[in-house]
Amino acid sequence: MTKSSRRIDDDRRSSMAGGRKNEVRQTARSIATVTGILIILGSAALFSATSTPLASEGEFPYSAILKHLAFLAVGIAIATFISAALPKLPGQTVKFLIYFAFIVNAALLAACFSPLGVELNGARRWVNLGGIVFQPSEFLKITLVLLIAAVLIEGGRRSLRSFRSDRGDVFTLRRDRVILAWAYIAIFLSVVLVAIQPDLGTTSIVLGTALATLFLAGVPPVSIIKFVLVLILFAGLGLLAFPKKYHYAMERIRTHFNPTEDVSGDAYQITQSLAAISQAGIWGRGYMRSLQKMNRLPLHDRDFIFAVWVEETGVVGGLLVLCLFLYFAFLCLRISMMLPYGFESVAICALGFNLALQAIINVSTNVGALPVSGMTLPFFSSGGTSILVSMMIFGLIMGLTQRKLPGGAKASQAANKG
Q1: Which long-range contacts (CB under 8 A, 24 or more apart) does 382-387 make?
Q2: Percent of the chain with pLDDT over 70
């Protein structure tokens, strides 16, 4: 090959690489735009859902939205810091921080059952540290995903090595089983610590995202199915051993299939939610004009804020929110496919899936497609932990994207060496 031919090929590769980098940056900007729209819509929905009811009760009408905006400001600051610092960190440092964060998260989950834990309605899901009350299981949606990706992917390649045989995927090294065992143990402990609080809604999100991360990291589907069967076995044993602890879950399932049986009792929430949605029509009653939020719909600012939003903005407003979350997940999938395969691409896709899955479950419970789960709607529901975790996910996605672009090259090289 002549020098001129080599030069042409080099220029072509450089041009293709530059085009790909621009495409990644454009997709990242789209993710930021969608996130910004969700933040604006969520703040508007929460203001409408809380200001009038608080005023009618003689309380300061703006207390809920001001608290939300304060947590949002902190979340934006954290997201900005993460997106700026993450590309500059060496790979070994990132791994250490992931392991450390998961261990701290697991310790805080265990602390829910200590004197530091806060019990509400029979559930111990919160921890009180120096007057700051928060829900450790929310952070597990981040730390567990990053831990699985860090354990199973190393140096831009899957840590599990397998070959294709007549029987399917077979592990070739003993090391593979040890690595996968650590991932399975982390998932199992996480699921158990959340399930015994009890919080089966968050358990479903944590488990669903963890299984998706396993699949993205190259774990054979047969192995994942076997692990799920083991979890089902332990879940069945737990229900038999502690029937009273999970009685509420069985009642919610029964109510889901027979919503008209007790409309003033167990089915009251979903009945009022469906009433709000059914009266909305195409365009809704109008912003700030919801009737169900006025002491009719419980948790109208948290679990059922989507019903209030649809009542005011109609089917159009509801579909807009749902499509924004689905588009967010699609953009994360798209950007992960543009990047070289590795820890970053898997983590980005899994984190995007996490937010979308939570939104889908929340919307499904609001419209009666799934039993009531106690799941919040990211960026919309009140609660400081929820908005902080959502913003941290956004910051991580932005930071992980930059680790594969100019400015994050040194970090990527260090990660590959590590």
Answers
A1: 382/46, 382/50, 382/64, 382/67, 382/68, 382/301, 382/302, 382/305, 383/135, 383/302, 384/67, 384/71, 384/134, 385/134, 385/135, 385/138, 385/139, 386/138, 387/68, 387/71, 387/72, 387/75
A2: 85
